[in-house]
Automatic annotation (TrEMBL):
Keywords: DNA damage, DNA repair, Glycosidase, Hydrolase, Iron, Iron-sulfur, Metal-binding
Keyword Coiled coil: no
Organism of provenance: Luteolibacter ambystomatis
Reaction catalyzed: Hydrolyzes free adenine bases from 7,8-dihydro-8-oxoguanine:adenine mismatched double-stranded DNA, leaving an apurinic site
Protein name as it appears in the record: Adenine DNA glycosylase
UniProt GO molecular function: 8-oxo-7,8-dihydroguanine DNA N-glycosylase activity; adenine/guanine mispair binding; iron-sulfur cluster binding; metal ion binding; oxidized purine DNA binding; purine-specific mismatch base pair DNA N-glycosylase activity
Amino acid sequence: MLKPRATRDPLHEPLPFRDALAVWFGQNGRDYPWRRTTDPWAVLVSEVMLQQTQIATVLGRGYYTRFLSLFPDPATLAVAEDEPLLKAWEGLGYYRRARMLRETARAVTAAGGFPDSLDTLQKLPGIGRYTANALRAFAHDRPAAVVDGNVARVLARLLDYHHAVDSPSGLKHLWEVAERLADPHRPRIYNSAIMELGQTFCRPGVPDCLACPVSAFCKTPEPSALPVKTAKPKTERIHTHVLWARDRMGRILLHQEQGKRRQGLWKLPERTPEETADLPEIATRTYGITRFHVTMHIHECADAPAREGESWHPEEAIATLAMPSPYRKAVEALLA
DNA sequence: CATGCGTGGCT
DNA sequence: TAGCCAAGCAT
């Protein structure tokens, strides 16, 4: 891996660093729909959708455009029911984001508009330090710095920073650096540029330092070794047993989540291994969720008493319900 | 401060 | 295949 030697320090010479980023971005910046608007609502929707979610997912499957046509302003989302909201979010994951976005829409609607102070923005549900600053930079073009996964990687390499970037102390340091580096005169361009740099040249694994517009400012001799992250617990293999139950009318038994996290989503009813031991297993599916590798065993039964939170649904109604992806796929395969 | 939260693409 | 990673946040 060939990498040009660092000849300049971005913290010591922030002006040429910002210029190099701005020039490159001005000629090569990508055209995303959320870069074509300054509407705080449209920007907020994009930022929340993009939390821990790749651009290709949000764009490729049309989530962003569809969501904004369904909920074009905060007042519309503020009065939306669970079902259309969760359905619009189906497949994006982290479903709590959708509910928190509606809570924020209600607060903004009640207040008659978006707050402009960083502290007030950060008190809104689902808006943390990153999203609050992103709103200020991308919607209002006001001085702000952001640290997301891309920026953390870029800064760690620029500074040859070998502490864990996902630890609280590491993040604190990176935010301080980010605020010193950020361009106070071109917040929108600067923040767009440094994030896009992390998606393109300064990508995870082996970066493309030879083409990087700021390689002269980059201190690390071994970029592929950065950033350092805290060790994650090893994936655990677990098994679940669910029912594929249809009554005499052909209706399907489903369970609606009640907890804090996935409230409102519909799943196949779960039973203990003992309860399904005598039922024929008609399919198994595997999927990953957080730190678990799940093998879902699907058992067929003609009928079953509905328990708390469970109800029967005609086949035509299934498509209108919001289901987590693994269950959506399982149901579609079983109905095919 | 560590952990849980979804999903899909890439290595 | 298994692990890593992504425009983080709340608890």
